[in-house]
């Protein structure tokens, strides 16, 4: 950014630079908004974001948050919905800038990348593997794991209702609860997490990655999760398709929600469930399954000893 601008005072030039840095836009747009707001940075930024942040990039959402079918945006943070916190756009812009760096991937030029996320975690006092980051990514509608563009971060923090490090730290317990305790919210984040976790160009997810997601999302809500995990580790080697991943939630909260329901309601013959779920049903009702698991474990131990 230039340190001086034709026809402006030193203070006005500094405000233009600061506005452009916070908003991620150019000096011409910055000067226009500042002039219209009589050189009040706070008012200029509020006007800029009310106008939809023109010139700062757009957020491509793969999941609608607050659609015509659900205009209330019921999956947004309760803090934001209740308007308990008014987001300060100037503070929010600085919050992003504190952790952003030049991006080699993002189309907006600057992004919070892996290094920035690690610094965020250090300052928040949490772990990058904390499940709350999946909720944050969902609200931001982040497209690339390990990166938040300017528009993604700004839109996400506005949905959550925070504009600072302290604000985000305070809502981390609520963000975890959206996965652990709120089944509706957990389902939306679960569906988003599949695409978010894919490698570039991939259409299926390795079984190890699925197990990590299933442990986060299904374990709190599915009484048969421990049996499912045993089955997957013993029998499954192939990558998982999006259809199978999505249908598992339907089964885990429906026809497979507990043992009695699965034995009576799961239709293996005509239910059109994915093969992986049919295989789980067959494995589950096999009276010798525990013996087979033990035998497989013994064989694995023998192989290790022979090596």
UniProtKB/TrEMBL annotation:
Residues 87-285 form the DCUN1 domain. Keywords: Ubl conjugation pathway. PROSITE patterns: DCUN1. GO terms for biological process: protein neddylation. GO terms for cellular component: ubiquitin ligase complex. GO terms for molecular function: cullin family protein binding; ubiquitin conjugating enzyme binding; ubiquitin-like protein binding. This is Defective in cullin neddylation protein. It comes from Perkinsus marinus (strain ATCC 50983 / TXsc).
């Amino acid at each position: 950014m230039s340190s001086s601008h034709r026809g402006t005072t030193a203070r006005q030039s500094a405000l233009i630079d600061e506005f452009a840095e916070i908003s991620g836009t150019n000096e011409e747009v910055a000067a226009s908004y500042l002039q219209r707001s009589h050189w009040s940075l706070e008012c200029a930024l509020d006007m800029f974001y009310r106008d939809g942040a023109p010139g700062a990039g757009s957020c491509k959402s793969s999941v609608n948050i607050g659609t015509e079918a659900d205009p209330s945006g019921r999956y947004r943070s309760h803090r934001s919905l209740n308007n308990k916190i008014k987001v300060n756009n100037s503070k929010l812009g600085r919050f992003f800038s504190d952790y952003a760096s030049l991006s080699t991937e993002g189309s907006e030029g600057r992004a919070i990348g892996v290094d920035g996320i690690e610094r965020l975690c250090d300052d928040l006092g949490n772990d990058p593997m904390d499940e709350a980051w999946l909720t944050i990514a969902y609200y931001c509608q982040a497209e690339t794991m390990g990166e938040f563009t300017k528009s993604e971060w700004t839109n996400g923090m506005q949905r959550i209702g925070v504009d600072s490090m302290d604000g985000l730290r305070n809502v981390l317990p609520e963000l975890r609860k959206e996965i652990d305790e709120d089944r509706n919210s957990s389902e939306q984040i679960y569906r988003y997490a599949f695409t978010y976790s894919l490698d570039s160009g991939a259409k299926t997810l390795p079984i190890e990655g699925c197990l990590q997601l299933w442990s986060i999302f299904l374990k709190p809500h599915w009484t048969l999760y421990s049996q499912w995990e045993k089955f997957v580790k013993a029998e499954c080697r192939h990558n998982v398709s999006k259809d199978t991943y999505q249908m598992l939630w339907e089964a885990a909260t429906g026809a497979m929600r507990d043992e009695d329901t699965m034995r009576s309601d799961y239709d293996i013959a005509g239910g059109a469930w994915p093969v992986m779920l049919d295989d789980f049903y067959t494995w589950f009702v096999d009276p010798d399954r525990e013996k087979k698991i033990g035998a497989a474990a013994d064989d694995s131990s023998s192989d290790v000893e022979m090596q």
